[in-house]
Amino acid sequence: MVAEIIDGKAFAATVRGHVADHVARLKEEHGITPGLAVVLVGEDPASQVYVRSKGKQTVEVGMNSYEHKLSADTPQKDLLDLIDKLNNDSAVHGILVQLPLPRHMNEDLVINAIDPAKDVDGFHISNVGLLGTGQKSMVPCTPLGCLMMLRDHHGSLSGKDAVVIGRSNIVGKPMAQLLLGDSCTVTIAHSRTKDLPDVVRRADIVVAAVGRPEMVQGDWIKEGATVIDVGINRIERDGKNVLVGDVHYESAAAVAGAITPVPGGVGPMTIACLLANTLTACCRANGLPEPEGLTA
Ligand SMILES: NC(=O)C1=CN([C@@H]2O[C@H](COP(=O)(O)OP(=O)(O)OC[C@H]3O[C@@H](n4cnc5c(N)ncnc54)[C@H](OP(=O)(O)O)[C@@H]3O)[C@@H](O)[C@H]2O)C=CC1
Ligand SMILES: Nc1nc(=O)c2c([nH]1)NC[C@@H]1CN(c3ccc(C(=O)N[C@@H](CCC(=O)O)C(=O)O)cc3)C=[N+]21
Ligand SMILES: [Mg+2]
C-alpha cells in the first residue's frame, strides 16, 4: 500500500479562506474586526519563527494582530499585568501566551489568568473542563487541526480504534478527548506504556505527539491505518538542519492508508485553527452566530 498524503498545508489554506470570508462579512455587516494578541517571553528562535508566521497569517485573513515581546527576565507580575490589560481590551478577542515560558514563571498560573473566553489556545482549566464534559469551549488548536483532517479523510470516526502517543495537556490529552467525542475507542500511550509497538499495531488511527524524532516505525503501523504526525523536531542530517516528525515517514508511508507529512501537515493546521478560534471568540463576544465547520 502507498499512503495517501494528507496535505495539511493546502487544507490550512482552505480553512484560512473560510476565516477570511467570515471576517470580511463581520467588518461589512457589523463593523467588527477580530483581534489576536500574541505574547512571547524570551528569545527562543523556534518560538520567534512561529510568532512571526502567526502574526503574518492573522493580518492576511483581515484580523488585527497585536504582538507583545517581553524579555526572558521579565517578572511574572509584569506578564500578569499585561494579561489583565488584554483581558480588559475590547479590541482583543484572542490571547495566546507562547509556551514554554521561562523557568521562573508558573505556566498554570499564567494560563489561568487569561479570560477563558479569550483563551484561543484552549489551555485554561475552564476550557479543559468544558471539553472534558462535552460542553461548548475553546478547543486547543493542534488537536482541533488533527480532528479536522481526520474527519475530512474518514467522514465518520465512530467506532475506530485510535491510539494517541503522548499525554501532554496541550496535545495528547485534548486530542484523546476529541477522538472520544467522535466515538473512537481511545488509547492514550506514554513513556511508561508496555510494548508501544504492539499498542500502535491495533490502531486504525495513530496520533503521534511525543517529541522524539522518527520514533514510530513503519512496522508498528497496521496496514491501511491513518497516521497523524504532530512532532516537530529539528535534527542535523548530512550536515544540514532538517525538520522531522515523530514518525519515520518513509517506512510508515509504505504501510499506512494515509499520513501527514512534516513539514506541511499538522503545523499549518495549528495556525489556521488559531485564527478560526479567534474568529469564534470574536463572534461569541459580540453575540453573533459562529462560523460553521471551524469548531469541534
Ligand atoms: N505541529 C504543531 O502544531 C505542534 C507540534 N508539537 C510537537 O509535538 C510533540 C509533542 O509535544 P508536547 O505534547 O508538547 O510534548 P511533551 O514533551 O509535553 O509530551 C510528550 C509526551 O510523549 C511521551 N513520551 C516521551 N517519550 C516517549 C516514549 N519513548 N514512548 C512513548 N511516549 C513517550 C511523554 O510521556 P510521559 O508523560 O510519560 O513523560 C509525554 O506524554 C513535540 O515534537 C512538539 O514539538 C507541539 C505542539 C504543536
Ligand atoms: N501557547 C502556545 N500555543 C501553541 O500552539 C504553541 C506554543 N504555545 N508553543 C509552541 C508550539 C508549536 N507550535 C507550532 C505551530 C506551527 C508550526 C508550523 O507551522 N510548522 C510548519 C513548519 C515551520 C518550520 O519550518 O519551522 C510545518 O509543520 O509545516 C509548528 C509548531 C505551536 N505551539
Ligand atoms: Mg510541553
UniProtKB/TrEMBL annotation:
The keyword Oxidoreductase applies. SUPFAM superfamilies: Aminoacid dehydrogenase-like, N-terminal domain, NAD(P)-binding Rossmann-fold domains. Keywords: Amino-acid biosynthesis, Histidine biosynthesis, Hydrolase, Methionine biosynthesis, Multifunctional enzyme, NADP, One-carbon metabolism, Oxidoreductase, Purine biosynthesis. Pathway: One-carbon metabolism; tetrahydrofolate interconversion. It catalyses: (6R)-5,10-methenyltetrahydrofolate + H2O = (6R)-10-formyltetrahydrofolate + H(+); (6R)-5,10-methylene-5,6,7,8-tetrahydrofolate + NADP(+) = (6R)-5,10-methenyltetrahydrofolate + NADPH. The keyword Transferase does not apply. Signal peptide: none annotated. Residues 140-284 form the Tetrahydrofolate dehydrogenase/cyclohydrolase NAD(P)-binding domain. GO terms for molecular function: methenyltetrahydrofolate cyclohydrolase activity; methylenetetrahydrofolate dehydrogenase (NADP+) activity. Residues 6-121 form the Tetrahydrofolate dehydrogenase/cyclohydrolase catalytic domain. Its EC number is 1.5.1.5, 3.5.4.9. NADP(+) binds at residues 166-168, 232. InterPro entries: Aminoacid_DH-like_N_sf, NAD(P)-bd_dom_sf, THF_DH/CycHdrlase, THF_DH/CycHdrlase_cat_dom, THF_DH/CycHdrlase_CS, THF_DH/CycHdrlase_NAD-bd_dom. Catalyzes the oxidation of 5,10-methylenetetrahydrofolate to 5,10-methenyltetrahydrofolate and then the hydrolysis of 5,10-methenyltetrahydrofolate to 10-formyltetrahydrofolate. Belongs to the tetrahydrofolate dehydrogenase/cyclohydrolase family. Homodimer. This is Bifunctional protein FolD.
